[in-house]
Amino acid sequence: MAEAVRTREEIEAEIDAARQRLAASVEGLISQVHPKAIVAHTVEDARTFARGSFEQAKSQLVDERGSLRTERVALVAAAVGGAVTFAVIVRSILRGR
């Protein structure tokens, strides 16, 4: 099997194309690991997570028509009241010592 003979210009063009691809890859890598880029990605991920969590919690308390699900609101209020009561009791016990 005979190898194809390439001209000097073809080899130089191939090397130049490879150099450009390498430069673009290095540039992309640097932009990904730059501290400001990492902070920006982290902040965006946190916002996306918070937005999703808020929408999920909202869907538990509001139905498709936009009205409150009173039984769920009452359940959440009772849970919050229970947690506050528990905290007050624990605090009073600890202060009593």
Structural account:
- With 97 residues, the protein is an all-alpha fold.
- The chain has two domains: 8-61; 65-97, no CATH class.
- Helices cover 82% and strands 0% of the residues.
- It has three helices and no strands.
- The protein has helices at 8-33, 35-61, 70-96.
- The longest helix has 27 residues, at 35-61.
- It is elongated.
- The chain starts with 7 loop residues before the first helix and ends with a helix.
List the helices and strands and how they pair.
Blueprint: H1 8-33, H2 35-61, H3 70-96
- Give the class from helix and strand content and strand pairing: mainly alpha
- H/I helix tally: 3
Radius of gyration: 31 Å
> How would you spell out the order of helices and strands?
HHH
SS elements, strand count: 0
Helix content: over 70%
End-to-end Cα distance: 93 Å
- Main β-sheet: number of strands, strand sense, barrel status? none
Summarize the structure.
The protein is mainly alpha-helical and 97 residues long. It has helices spanning 8-33, 35-61, 70-96.
